[in-house]
Design goal:
alpha/beta, globular
């Protein structure tokens, strides 16, 4: 039985930790580039609150040159593609439940 990564990630939801560092940005970009049929990526972004997480994601992660291949691939639809596929989530891996309250963690 052969396993195909494309089939494995097709229409799947992924919870992604560590997407704000260089390796995380590269990994997130490659994941979205190679598996565009992924349903959603919930990406943790450490910040004081949800708004700061969103700002950090859009101003630090998405603007990274690691996303240039996706910008080239999707052109004017790049931002729409990111909004459709990635949900930034305020969280901190150093805290219990990633720093989320019980409702967010579930």
């Amino acid at each position: 039985m052969k396993l195909s990564p494309t089939e494995i990630f097709n229409n799947k939801k992924i919870f992604f930790i560590g997407g704000t560092g260089f390796v995380g940005k590269v990994t997130l970009s490659l994941l979205l580039h190679n598996f565009p049929n992924i349903s959603r990526v919930y990406a943790t972004v450490r910040a004081r609150d949800k708004n700061e997480s969103l700002n950090r994601f859009w101003n630090s992660v998405v603007t990274s040159p690691t996303f240039d291949p996706l910008r080239e691939k999707y052109g004017d639809k790049f931002e729409d593609f990111i909004r459709e596929k990635v949900v930034p989530v305020n969280g901190d891996v150093g805290n219990e439940h990633l720093g989320m309250d019980e409702a967010e963690a579930s």
